[in-house]
UniProtKB/TrEMBL annotation:
The keyword Magnesium does not apply. GO terms for molecular function: transmembrane transporter activity. InterPro entries: EmrB-like, MFS, MFS_dom, MFS_trans_sf. It is a multi-pass membrane protein. The lineage of its organism: Bacteria, Bacillati, Actinomycetota, Actinomycetes, Pseudonocardiales. This is Drug resistance transporter, EmrB/QacA subfamily. Keywords: Cell membrane, Membrane, Transmembrane, Transmembrane helix, Transport.
Length: 473
């Protein structure tokens, strides 16, 4: 079946792309959905929030279930759930129906996504092929948000918002049929023997509570009783989960896995990268629409260069440079490029031209992200054995979603707070909006500096590893 590995990778990436795209595909359609289904202004946030809560909250559990019940089985179950839920979203007749269907869609997305990286590691044991495969998966992870924005704008204007969900149905059906034929069966270690039901309940509740707290910050504020109360509850649940893992005979998350410096440090760096990158996409969409006056369709096209650059680098360059020079120097170059992109966006004017002020920082960010994310995934997964690859895959996916949700909320609050403060002083709306977006970009640049220092110090390879890399070059 070695000849089927690359088609199998295509099926896995198709599933991941649907899951990531559906985080952002609704963004430009929300005003139309609000009008058609009668959402309140605050209730509209749940179209995205319910999906994110289920998606992020169940990733770690899904990854562990892949190790126990078989990754192929979990992937197929997630793909089927996601496809059916997409049809329900398209047919939603009122607001509660759409929110409920989006939650179920998030459950399917978690099951699909959590096991993919573990399956890739098993499918491609050779370093060079694995680097190429992880590069393809990284492209999907990094560019899905931009692709979702473009697709949402085009589909909504061309047909209706129902089709942003309905297009998943034929794609999901074809992917399911191909997956049953291309993905090799695996049995896992056994659910009964390895199940940790209390641990699963605690970590799922902790992650869901944390994501709920984060996505509601924009409404309640960081210092509100709502945010502090639910934040404390999430921390308490997480602490209870950690205590449970030290006492359970078959823990959901064996804490020994975190002793791998590559895995734990890689996840920290991934959180920081996704925090700044996902927040950047949200802020840039607002900048293009509210300051530069772009339409929904034009905004989607304007965000496309990021996805194209990520694809060119992650699919065509990252595997070769990672193999030749090692992940550490590639990470340094990638994060530095992202920092430069954020700085350029932080000085973009209110009358910016696309070619002079929008495209250059987008290309820098796409280049940096296309280099950094595959390097981090390769580095982190290299410190994990095959038996726990599903768990490590779920951990990476969980960290990415937490970074995305927190980055989105922090940058949204930062931009909104600055804008509202300037409006209260009597400044013009365009000037106030631009200042808020500039501040958000500077926060992303600051996070990039933290990431760069962390990578340079903590992930620096030993002298022995550097010597081996030099010999291989």
């Amino acid at each position: 079946m070695s000849h089927a590995r690359w088609p199998a990778l295509a099926v896995l990436c198709a599933g991941a792309l649907m899951a990531i795209v559906d985080e952002t595909i609704v963004a430009v359609s929300l005003p139309v959905i609000q009008y058609d289904l009668g959402f309140s202004r605050s209730g509209l946030a749940w179209v995205t929030g319910s999906y994110l809560i289920a998606f992020a909250g169940l990733l770690l559990l899904s990854g562990r279930l892949g190790d126990l019940a078989g990754r192929r089985r979990v992937f197929l179950a997630g793909l089927a759930t996601f496809t059916v839920a997409s049809a329900l979203c398209a047919l939603a007749w009122n607001a509660p129906t759409l929110v409920a269907a989006r939650f179920v869609q998030g459950i399917g997305a978690a099951a699909m996504t959590a096991v993919i990286l573990g399956m890739i590691v098993t499918l491609f044991p050779a370093p060079k092929e694995r680097a190429k495969a992880i590069g393809a998966f990284s492209f999907v992870q990094a560019s899905g948000g931009s692709i979702g924005t473009l697709a949402g704008g085009l589909i909504t204007e061309a047909v209706s918002w129902h089709w942003i969900f309905l297009v998943n149905v034929p794609i999901g059906a074809v992917a399911f049929v191909l997956a049953t034929r291309l993905l090799a069966k695996d049995t896992g270690t056994g659910v009964v023997r390895g199940a940790d039901v209390p641990g699963a309940a605690l970590v799922t509740a902790a992650l869901m509570t944390a994501i709920y707290t984060v996505i509601r910050v924009e409404v309640h504020g960081w210092a509100s009783a709502h945010t502090l109360g639910f934040g404390a509850l999430a921390l308490a649940l997480l602490a209870a989960f950690v205590i449970r893992q030290t006492r359970a005979s078959n823990p959901l998350l064996p804490l020994r896995i975190l002793r791998s410096v590559k895995l734990s440090s890689g996840n920290i760096a991934m959180f920081l990268l996704v925090f700044s990158m996902f927040g950047f996409m949200f802020v840039t969409v607002l900048y293009l629409r509210e300051v530069l006056g772009y339409s929904a369709r034009d905004t989607g096209f304007a965000m496309l260069p990021v996805a194209v650059m990520i694809g060119l680098v992650s699919l065509g360059v990252s595997a070769r440079v990672n193999t030749r020079f090692g992940e550490w120097p590639v990470l340094l170059v990638g994060v530095t490029s992202m920092f430069a992109g954020f700085v350029l966006f932080s000085v973009a004017p209110s009358d910016a031209s696309f070619a002079a002020h929008v495209l250059p920082p987008q290309l820098l960010l796409g280049f940096g992200s296309g280099l950094s994310i595959p390097a981090l995934m390769s580095l982190g997964m290299s410190g994990v054995g095959e038996r726990e690859a599903g768990l490590a895959s779920g951990l990476f996916s969980t960290v990415q979603q937490m970074g995305a949700a927190l980055g989105l909320s922090v940058l949204a609050v930062v931009a909104a707070t600055r804008t509202e403060g300037l409006l209260a002083e009597g400044r013009e709306r365009a000037e106030s909006l631009l200042s808020g977006f500039h501040l958000a970009y500077l926060v992303s640049a600051g996070v990039s500096v933290v990431t760069l220092v962390f990578v340079a110090v903590v992930l620096r390879p030993s002298r022995t590893m550097r010597a081996r890399a030099a010999v291989s070059v």
